[in-house]
Amino acid sequence: MSSQETPEEKLPAGQDTAYGAVRVADEKNPFADPGLPPHEPRVQDIDERAAKRSERTVALLFTLSMLATVGFIASFVRIPVDASVYIFPLGHISALNFALGMTLGVALFAIGAGAVHWARTLMSDHEIADERHPVSASPEVREQVMDDFRQGAKESVLGRRKLIRNTMFGALALFPLSGVVLLRDLGPLPGTSLRHTLWAKGKLLINMNTNEPMRPSDIIVGSLTFAKPEGLDEHEHGFLNEIAKAALMIVRIQPEDIKDKRELEWSHEGIVAYSKICTHVGCPISLYEQQTHHALCPCHQSTFDLSDGARVIFGPAGHALPQLRIGVNDEGYLEALGDFEEPVGPAFWERG
Question: 119: closest CA among 150, 155, 78?
Answer without folding.
Answer: 155
